[in-house]
Amino acid sequence: MGGTSAIYKRTTNPDTTVGDGVALAYKIGTEVQDMEFIQFHPTSFHSNAGYTFLISEAVRGEGAYLKNAKGERFMVGKHELKELAPRDVVAKAIFNEMQKGNTDHVYLTLDHLDGEKIKNRFPKIYNLCKENNCNMLDRIPVAPAAHYMCGGIKTGINGETNISNLYVCGELASTGIMGANRLASNSLLECIVYGKRSIDDSKLNKKEIYKIYEKEGYNINENKADEFVEINNKISSIMNQNAGIIKNEGLLKTALTQLQGIENEYKFENNELYSLKLDNLLCVCRLIINAALLRKESRGAQIREDFPNEEKEFEVHTIQQKDEETSFIKVEK
């Protein structure tokens, strides 16, 4: 970063990930799809310093319990699968438990399990916990963290977009295989299968050679480094509080107002790295919020307390495109 500040945010993604790919594609007219569906991983390590890492669902699969600060198992009665319920169900339950107890985490307890078996089964998680002064064999402080965007740049089955000769694959793409939620290994399908399809299709459809135009390079104002980290943290807090696991119209509109305030106050510089990154970050946040506002229902990773049920009319994909009205297209079954 160049600065001394650290980025603290409840996400499992790298600090450098601020949605540049989605923003760049959107700004040239590419369609983006289903940006409202942000999956939260329910059990991400919680630390007061903000550092986090995933506590795999396999840990719950081995029999770990989720307990609140009082030591009560709160998933019992919430879902027939208890701790092994789908991610959105577990994340929502943890969020509600934290709200009820006025805490910022709950606990994943393993003290009733075979310690040696756990150490051998999860050596990396065990060592990471140990490095953070946590005994995995007793209990692990956890809280949900933003994990995966089920939407992204809209593509066809070969990674093609609405922009001629622009292909997208991997976690940046919205191929339609995710739906409103996601299974963990689907990301391999998006990366490997659609990556190959994109390459193969681009070879078949290469009709002309495009001239590569030189574009003015960007510069880096190192004086903006710490400021960018500070604003990044602020935006992360805004999005977590107002556009996170459980949303409503008031919270989403509050987020838009706060983001506009940040944009108004920031001194953007032409072709400057941190200015460009902040503009991209604000762009992606607005795409998420606008889609969440328009989807007046709860479905999968989109939970709105003011519209708690699934609605037949919203069995659609949300399509956003620059300078165009947001539209909906029916889900193909």
Explained architecture:
- The protein has three domains: 20-28 and 219-330, Fumarate reductase/succinate dehydrogenase flavoprotein-like, C-terminal domain (Methane Monooxygenase Hydroxylase, Chain G, domain 1, Up-down Bundle); 41-143, Succinate dehydrogenase/fumarate reductase flavoprotein, catalytic domain (Flavocytochrome C3, Chain A, domain 1, Alpha-Beta Complex); 148-204, no CATH class.
- Helix content is 36%, strand content 13%.
- It is built from nine helices and nine strands.
- The strands form two sheets. It has a five-stranded mixed beta sheet with strand order 7-6-1-8-9, with helices on one face.
- A hairpin with a 6-residue loop joins strand 8 (316-320) and strand 9.
- Helix 1 (20-27) packs across helix 9 (273-294) and helix 7 packs parallel to helix 9.
- The radius of gyration is 21 Å and the shape is globular.
Topology:
Layout: H1 20-27, E1 32-33, E2 38-45, H2 57-61, E3 65-67, H3 87-101, E4 106-109, H4 115-121, H5 123-131, E5 139-149, E6 152-154, E7 173-174, H6 186-204, H7 225-242, H8 249-265, H9 273-294, E8 316-320, E9 327-330
Parallel strand pairs: 6-7
Antiparallel strand pairs: 1-6, 1-8, 2-5, 3-4, 4-5, 8-9
Helix pairs in contact: 1-9, 7-8, 7-9, 8-9
Q: CATH-wise, what's the superfamily of the largest domain?
A: Fumarate reductase/succinate dehydrogenase flavoprotein-like, C-terminal domain
Q: Which series of helices and strands comes N to C?
A: HEEHEHEHHEEEHHHHEE
Low-confidence stretches: 1-5
Global structural class: alpha+beta
- How much is the average pLDDT? 91
Using the CA coordinates, give the radius of gyration: 21 Å
Number of discrete domains: 3
Largest sheet: 5 strands, mixed
Number of helical stretches of at least 4 residues? 9
User: So what's the CATH class of the largest domain?
Assistant: Mainly Alpha
Which fold name is given in CATH as the topology of the largest domain?
Answer: Methane Monooxygenase Hydroxylase, Chain G, domain 1
**CATH-level-2 architecture of the largest domain:** Up-down Bundle
Order of strands, widest sheet = 7-6-1-8-9
* Shape category: globular
Taking the alpha carbons of the first and last residues, their distance comes to 45 Å
Strand percent estimate: 5-15%
